[in-house]
TrEMBL record:
It comes from the Eukaryota. The lineage of its organism: Eukaryota, Viridiplantae, Streptophyta, Embryophyta, Tracheophyta. Residues 241-294 form the Disease resistance protein At4g27190-like leucine-rich repeats domain. The keyword Repeat does not apply. SUPFAM superfamilies: L domain-like. The keyword Plastid does not apply. Gene3D superfamilies: Ribonuclease Inhibitor. This is Disease resistance protein At4g27190-like leucine-rich repeats domain-containing protein. Coiled coil: none annotated. Keywords: Plant defense. Pfam families: LRR_RPS2.
Length: 316
């Protein structure tokens, strides 16, 4: 079996066999429902490009994984009890392009686990990361902007309440979920890099947020399809376009041209969903759900000549 390139091992194996090191040409390894945390022999698979691990028995990622210099994809989403990634392991995966990590690991980035110090996401700064799925407790843990410049697909969760009111499902792509202090989020620079590609935007309990991203005047969400805003109690506008956007009508409308679904809950100071001038561009809108917005005066802010608006796709 020395020429074997793809291998899946499933169920019941107590550990990876030592003889695995003869598979020098293996490119893909999947450990499916693996009932063991003993995978230290994996470091011998020097040509491995894709590694997917599915186990509840692995608490620490073996340092030997850092020897896989040709690894392009590392999927740890189903390593549900992962608690420790040694520093330097991710740095050693110099060809890594795709990284997927379980949400259970969110409190561990750049923190101590007993006497151990966990890996930092800054180890990815030298890599060409095109796909990323991670959860972090606050925006300050994310590394500098350069890590995200090559992203094509992503699910990035800041905070730990994304299950509530979320529009995220198995098929969601390019998800940005934000919690915490608005200024901390904006200062990180993540918006400027990801807004162009974000398709699902969730805002949950974002403090000191009165307007959703005045940076819209420069960037916008051209690919945004679904948005959910929950318990952003200080928010007054989704976009205050009349004040912040001294641009042409066409540019304003392009910000949300693909938006299909909107959910807004418990935003006590919100007065309007969106200015009338921008509402005319929401031709793809399929669903609007608004609840618990006690000071809301209307869905659209009519600060101009009244006009009819048509939503040909609106069903809900």
């Amino acid at each position: 079996m020395k020429e074997l390139k793809v291998l899946a091992l499933a169920l019941g194996i107590p550990s990876l066999p030592q003889s695995l090191d003869v598979l020098k040409n293996l490119r893909t390894l999947r450990l499916v429902k693996f009932k063991s945390g003993q995978i230290h022999t994996i470091g011998a698979l020097v040509k491995l490009e894709i590694l997917e691990i599915d186990t509840g028995y692995l608490w620490e990622l073996p340092e030997e994984i850092g020897l896989l210099k040709n690894l392009r994809l590392l999927d740890l989403r189903r390593v549900i009890n992962l608690r420790y990634i040694p520093p330097g392991v991710l740095l050693g995966l110099s060809k890594l392009e795709e990284l997927y990590v379980t949400d259970k690991f969110m409190m561990k980035w750049e923190s101590k686990d007993g006497d151990k110090i966990n890996a930092s996401l800054s180890e990815l700064e030298t890599h060409h990361i095109t796909a990323l799925e991670i959860t972090v407790p606050k925006a300050s843990i994310l590394p500098k902007d350069s890590v995200f410049r090559n992203l094509i697909r992503f699910k990035i969760f800041i905070g730990h309440k994304y299950a509530y009111g979320s529009l995220v499902d198995r098929d969601s792509v390019n998800v940005l979920h934000l919690e915490g202090e608005a200024n901390d989020i904006k200062e990180n620079g993540i918006f400027a890099l990801l807004m162009w590609k974000t398709e699902v935007l969730n805002l949950v309990e974002v403090q000191n947020l009165k307007k959703v991203l005045y940076e819209l005047e420069d960037y916008g969400f051209p690919d945004l399809k679904r948005s959910s805003v929950d318990e952003c109690v200080e928010q007054e506008f989704l976009v205050d376009a009349l004040e912040r956007v001294p641009r042409s009508q066409e540019i304003r409308l392009s910000y949300f041209r693909n938006l299909r679904e909107v959910k807004i809950r418990s935003c006590g100071k919100l007065k309007y969903f969106i200015p009338l001038s921008m509402a005319r561009g929401l031709r793809q809108l399929h669903s609007i759900f608004i609840a618990g917005c006690e000071e809301m005066e209307g869905i659209f802010n009519k600060n101009e000549v009244d006009d009819e608006i048509e939503f040909p796709e609106l069903k809900i």
